[in-house]
Model the fold of this input.
Amino acid sequence: MVLAGCGTPVCSLDNAVAQLGPPAADCGRLSSDSHNPVDGAAYRAAHDCLVAGFASHMSVTARWYAAGIDSADEGVWVGVPDGGGYPVYEIIGLGMLIDEASTTQRCGAVVDLGACAAITTGLCFTCENPTTTATCGS
Done:
C-alpha cells in the first residue's frame, strides 16, 4: 500500500532526471556541509567523468548537494543523447527544503571552469544561455 504524500517527492531531482530519458551512467552523488567537506578525489572523479561523458555524448549524470548553516544548494548535471543531438541539462533544487521545487535548464553550451574549490559552483561547470524546459513546485 502506498500512502498519499509518501514515497519520492514530486519535485525530487531524481524525478526530474527520469523525465529526461533512460537511466544514465552515474558519475557520483557528492555532498558536503560545514563539518564534512567533500573529498577532493571524489570531486575530481565526478568532474572528470562528466567531461568524458559530455565529450563522447554518453548518457551521464552527477549530483551535488551542499548544506550551509541555514540553506542548502542541490543540483544535477545530465547529458542525454536524444536522436537530434546531445543536450546537456542542469537541474537545480530550489527552496529551503530539499525537493520543495526544481528547475530544469537545457544549456546552450557548458563551460568547464577547470579546477575550482567548492561543489556549490556546480561541479566546476556553468550552463551558458540556458533555456528553462521544466519547473516543479513553488
About this structure: Residues 13-137 form one domain. The mean pLDDT is 81. The CA atoms of residues 113 and 121 lie 9 Å apart.
